[in-house]
Amino acid sequence: MNEQEDIEVGPTYEDLKKSANRSSDWKVRLNAVEELAKLDNKQVIDVLTHMATNDPVYQVQEAAYLKLKELGEDVPAPSKNKGELFKGLTKILIRIKKSLPADHTYEDFKEKLKKMRVDIYDTYEGDKGDNFDQWLESTWASLSIK
Asked: Where are the alpha helices (DSSP H) in the chain?
């Protein structure tokens, strides 16, 4: 039996860096933070710092910040983003609502948003957490189509 066969190889830095930049899946980015922090690599600090300051989902920012602190880095804590996480969000949502039949349901709108703009859907799902459906439904109801 070859000793090499028993060694389990984890994800590589390059794989994790790709995962860290997946705009359409905040859970993959959150997992990438955990896995990246296990690697002893200067580039990891750069990626985590970028995530702590630029990720649109606060949970990912906070996780990256906490891992950087564990790694001994002196970084500022992320601030919870207020307002629109995507520029022009209301216009985008109105366009999606207009593309549906006049008698469409909230579920129709939700599915169309997920299909057309998974990046927006995913970011707000991560940002709003358990309040996502309530937020999206009230936002949908308030969109006026002229």
From this structure: 13-20, 26-36, 42-54, 58-70, 89-98, 106-116, 118-128, 132-142
